[in-house]
Amino acid sequence: MRGPTGFHLQRLADIDGCRDDDPWTLQTIVENEPSRRCRNVDPERFFPPDSARFLGRDLLIERERVANLCGDCPVRTQCLAGALMRGEAYGSWGGVSQPDYQIIRRLWREDQDSRREAA
Q: What is the three-state SS of the chain?
């Protein structure tokens, strides 16, 4: 499994402001945003084929594909935060490709566990 990079850590920092929000409220914000990039995109485009393996160039291509889908969407942060909070296991969320989402998801869960242990 790939380790986290600055990209992954930055995306976690980006969503920190949403940490106390309700995930379903975040989803409503995303769904009601009139200029969201995914409004008229088939949801299946955010899920790679089951047999997809993202090694080397294929990972770069997948990252670019998702970046083109999400671009400068105004609700990328809410989209990613909501997906993590709802426990979404697969897919591309908030401009993050599925392979990167898996890394961020692992980091998110580790952080949540640490916060619960500290409380």
A: CCCCCHHHHHHHHHHHHHCCCCHHHHHHHHHHCCCCCCCCCCHHHHCCCCCCCCCCHHHHHHHHHHHHHHCCCCCHHHHHHHHHHHCCCCCCECCECHHHHHHHHHHHHHHHHHHHHHC
